[in-house]
Amino acid sequence: ENGEEIAKCKSCGAHIRANSTRNGTSGLRSHNSSCKSKLKSTDETQTLLNFSTVSGLSSEISMTTLRCDQETIRKALVELVVGAELPFKFVTRHEFKHFMNIVCPKFKVPSRWTVQRDVYELFCSQKEKMKKILTKSGQRVCLTTDCWTFCQNVSYLCLTAHYIDENWILHKSLLNFCPISSHKGGDWYDCC
């Protein structure tokens, strides 16, 4: 245009001066990093190449592909928080964010509020799953209670269901876990 070399962005159609002798490539590089259309068109689930040494030998290199699936990693993160009994604010720690940036740079670490919602959704889905299992088979269920006191002198009551499925496998599921005022039987009624 007008005797000047102009480059056209394939994503957004913007015109950028492209004369390498006069303008250099900084304008192209700057537009490439800030192009909103390009950023939207990147596929978050696209696989990445990973080069690693085999058995610690630097002469042998293997190539594998890595896939960053946001939903799968979020589900695994929720299972980690629940299974390891971690606080929700664990995901806001600098060390965890640094670890996730190294493991999967494309993964967007959720906030602690998002993790809390995900844990609650997991709880609700497991609760519905347990209801279906117990009503579907019609077998007998044995309920047991267990009382214990935490090191801060807070007493808790656990309600556990034991049942045998159609394959004769014994299952144990925690139905309720609540604080109680004392170990006396009359105080348990308010909890359950």
Automatic annotation (TrEMBL):
It comes from the Eukaryota. SUPFAM superfamilies: Hermes dimerisation domain (SSF140996), Ribonuclease H-like (SSF53098). This is Transposase. The lineage of its organism: Eukaryota, Viridiplantae, Streptophyta, Embryophyta, Tracheophyta.
